[in-house]
Structures are given as structure tokens and as C-alpha cells.
Amino acid sequence: MQLYDMPDARGHFGQYGGTFVAETLVEALEELRVMYEKYRHDPVFLAEYAYDLKHFVGRPSPIYHAKRLSDKVGGAQIYLKREDLNHTGAHKINNTIGQALLAKRMGKPRVIAETGAGQHGVATATIAARLGLECVVYMGSEDVKRQAPNVFRMKLLGATVVPVESGSKTLKDALNEAMRDWVTNVHNTFYIIGTVAGPHPYPMMVRDFQAIIGIEAKQQMMEMVGHQPEAVVACVGGGSNAMGIFYPYIDVPNVRLIGVEAAGLGMETGKHAAPLTANSAVGVLHGNRTYLMQDADGNIIETHSISAGLDYPGVGPEHAWLKDIKRAEYVAVTDDEAMAAFHNLCRTEGIIPALESSHALAYAEKLAKTMSSDKVILVNLSGRGDKDINTVAKLANITL
Amino acid sequence: MSRIKTVFATLKQQGKTALIPYITAGDPHPKFTVSLMHTLVEHGADMIELGVPFSDPMADGPVIQRASERALQHKVGLTAVLDMVKTFRQTDQATPIILMGYANPIEAVGVVAFADKAKAADVDGVITVDYPPEECGSFVKELRARDIDPVFLLSPTTDAKRVELIVNQASGFVYYVSLKGVTGAANLDIVEVAGRVASIREQTNLPVGVGFGIRDAATAKATAAIADAVVVGSRMVQAIEASTEDNLLRNVANLMTELKTAVDAA
Fold this sequence. Notes:
Distance between the termini of chain B: 27 Å
Order of helices and strands of chain B: HEHEHHEHHEHEHEHEHEHH
Shape of chain A: globular
Strand order of the largest sheet of chain B: 1-2-3-4-5-6-7-8
Oligomer: heterodimer
Number of helices of chain A: 15
Radius of gyration of chain A: 19 Å
């Protein structure tokens, strides 16, 4: 069997990925690449990481058989990988702990992060507080409004939240601003990127830190149902939770890997955040080459999604690669479909999912209906929905 | 000989340093760009760095970000910028034009198609901020096949090994970014810059331009004393931003005169 071995030494996944950055950042990325190579297999580093995952995050996260949901939908059995039960309420903490431990070893007293929904910002602020690091989080001013509870959480944890007013005032602009900070303060600052995008080694490193999701799931599925699922479904914005659960499954035959993007108001309206599903042109943004939502001049166009965490015009380069080699499939569900799945899970299972994860749930419901009841779908429930209650209430015309 | 080479050779004979102003094409409005370019030349620009607007200018500070946003409000993309260069060339065949921008607008056109179009518009050099030498081999090849100079940035964190890698791909000149950070950031340390420029010269015969942090006559003069070219970007864009339609060309002319006098006095 040919084992999957990506990326290459310079961070390329076929034509995707790479290191497309200004010269000022090259040395910092090289330093990071060398340090990550040094520690990624270091037993002491890995033991420290594992300790924090167990005692600080609460891993392993359980797998839960959503039986009432499965019965209601009819068809395949839906299982949930409960990343929503992690400390801070999402999968993001798996990665921030890994990078923050690396920052410590590199002697960087200050960490910065970009955030969309705020989950990565909260996860960064959390580990920064735990390790005594200064923390600055960049967040588009639109997202600051949409995700007020997470902004407050970050502040409680001692982080400085900087609203970004440039461009579309969302995740991509927060990323631009974090890059600018890093260029300026590279001597004392570690940039904790929250998704499997950015210049090499970030897509690989974030994937590796998130791979714990899939590693656990493979073992748990054997224990619970005695075989691997027919399909693994995860939402894709930048794509870190999807990459985390997909990666250990890439070499497992007969497991479909399905990434669910945000179709926003509908693919046909153009108001979405689904570059893979839309087959957008390939281009260069935020340090890597990937599928990008852009106009004819190569300017990035505004995306739309009800979920701030999926509101990103690009996608991690490894997803671009998995699409091209047809190892993973990419689909999109609309705001409305995601909302329906959100309510469905609340009412049938007593779990309030994040709006991001609700996209994966919505597609899993569609897929389950086409499969028999002895088949299994594993959904990565990447985060909990407490942060989204304002958005949901507003849609229902309810004032909290 | 390329226009860039010719200009540097002439200035060297005269014992002078090149003054290279930067403006973003389409800022404040596309109708002014060609007149602004001519004004820059009339008041001492030896070459012009013409910024290609981009939606996500990651290496730029707030001043040039705003210039990009103003230009994009008028939908000025790469194709429109090349048209502006063509118009400029109708009356100026001597002044080198160096495009400065990001990789994605070029990739959207396609590397080969872009090189063809840049040649057709009579562009002399291209700086692509997020194309480090490792990622742009074919791009450099296409440019050089058409006698367009790929100009590369060197930063305070670029070590000798990378300088070697970069100067082997670059032509025209190399551009030393005199401080860490984005365009328009804090003040530069001229002694440190002088040391770096001297060590770059040990590795290449290409002229060395210096930019980032040059904001007035004094810093322009100090930089001119140690470099082959002085690049002024954010300060120039600030002058444009602070102007009205009526005094735009006059304000830019005044700033250029001040900078030119300083550079020539070095």
C-alpha cells in the first residue's frame, strides 16, 4: 500500500501550499520549521503535549451515538466526535497547546493569533494565560460584533483583542493584520495560526496537532462499533478540524472523507464561502497556494456565511490537494440547512452545536438518508454552540 | 541595455543616487495616475515604482493599505495598471517603471500572459512582495526572457546565504528593506543600514536601493549617501492622501523637489 506522505520538504502538497511570504518573514518561518522538526518527534515535548491534552483539555473526547437523531433522520447511524466537550468548547485548543509549548521552547514571551468565530482566539488566550505568555488576538471588527461572548472571554483571560477595520473586517483581514504584527515583532513573538493554512510549516504543523482527533476516533470506533465508519464528515472553513479527523484516515481504504463548506445564501447566489465546491481559481493568499474566491483581477472577494468560523475565502492547501487526488469529497450546505441541523441536534440529543459544526451535521443528515441503518457516519462535532446564541436569537427575532 | 541599467549607469557617472518614488496606481482616482507619474518625473524621479492595488496587502502598513482600498473602489486591477503604463509611455520612453505588488493578481492573469502583457506595456521591472526566490523560478525565467528585471527585496533578517540565492535571480537592482515591519513603520537606523548595504555589495555588483522608513529630506539624504537608490513610498502616498483634487499635483511636486534636493546633496 502506498502511504500518504505529504507535504514535501518545502511544504508543497502538489501545486498547493508553499511559502509565499515577504522576505522579512522568511527567517522566522525557517526558524519555526527547524524547531518544529526538532520537537515533533521529541518524546519529552510529546509527553508534555499529551499531558496537557489529558489533564487540561480533558481528552480523549468521547464518541457519542446520536441515536435519536439517527432514528429521526432515518438511515445510517450518526456518531459524533465530541470536540465540543474540550476545554474552551472546540477543537482549536488541541493546536494552540502544541504551538504554545513550541513558543515556550523557542523563548518567545509573546503570542499573537487571528480569529474569526473567536474559538481560536479563546483557545490561544487560554493557553497563553496557563503558560504566562503575553497574548494579542486580531479579530475583524464585524466578527467582534457577531461574537461578543468570545471577545469578553478573551479579555477575561488577559488577552488584548484588536478589532481589525481593514478590508472586509473578517477573518482574512485579521490574518493580514496578525502577519503585519509578526513581521514587526518577529524577535519576541510567536504567531499561533489557528487553521491548516498560512505558509509552511503551518498547514502541516496545525494538521499534526489536530490529528489527535482522528487518531482517537479510529480507536474509539473499533471499540464502539467494531469497524471504521463508512464516512467521516467535517465542516471546512480553513479546514483544521476536518484535517485533524481526516488525516489518520487517509490511508484507510473505504472510508469516505467529506468536507462540508458554507454555501451561505446558496452556491448559485455567489454569496458563499465554498472555494472547493465552487471550483474557484487557484491563487496565492496568506502564504500558500490554494483554491481562492477571487475576481478576474485576482482580488479576494467577500465571502458569506452565517458562521464566522467558515467565513474565509481560501482553504487549507492540503484540502485542495485531497480534492484534486479525489481522496476527499467537498460539498456545501446553506445557512438555512445548517440552522435546521442546529435545531435538530438541540432538540433530539440535548447538544447545542456550533454553527460551523452544524454544517457538517446538515450534510450528514442528507447522506444518512441515502444509506442503510447498519452503516455508520462519523461527524466531527468541532465545537459547541454557546457562542452562537446571539446569532441564532437574532434570526428568530428574539432579544436576549 | 535595460532602462534600469541605463539610468543607474548614467547616475553613477554623475556621482548621483537614484530617487524612486512609489505611488499606488489608481490612488486617489485612476484619472490622476498618469499625470502623477509625469509630475514625479518632472520633479526628479529617476524611476517610478507603481503599486498594483491588491485586496490583501499583507506587507503594507495602514497608509499604503488605504491607497489600495481607494484604488480598488475604482476597480483598478492589474490590467488597468498596465494600460496606465502604456499611456504614460506615449510621452515618456525613458523613465523606468517598476511594478510592485503581490503574487495573486499576477497568478490570476497567468505568469506567462502577465509577462507578455508587461512587455507589451513596456514595464521595466517587477517586484512581487510574496514571491520569495524559492517559489518563483518560472516567473523569473519568463520575465528575464523578455528583458524585464525581477527586482527582489532583501531584509535585515536575510542572511548571507539567502542574499546569494536572491542576487543570483535578481536583475536591475536589489531593494534593501531597511527595517523589520510593514511599509511606513518606524524610523530607520542609518548606521545599521549602512553596514548591511556594505555587506550586500560584497556579494553583488547590482545596484542597491534602500526603502521603508524614509520620511523626510534628512532621512532621504542620509540614505542617499550609502545607497544607489532611495525609495520613498508611504511618505509619498501620505502626500497624495492629504491632498485635494486641486492641489494634488502641486503637493506631490513640492515633496519631490524637497526629496530630490536632499538626495542630490548627499
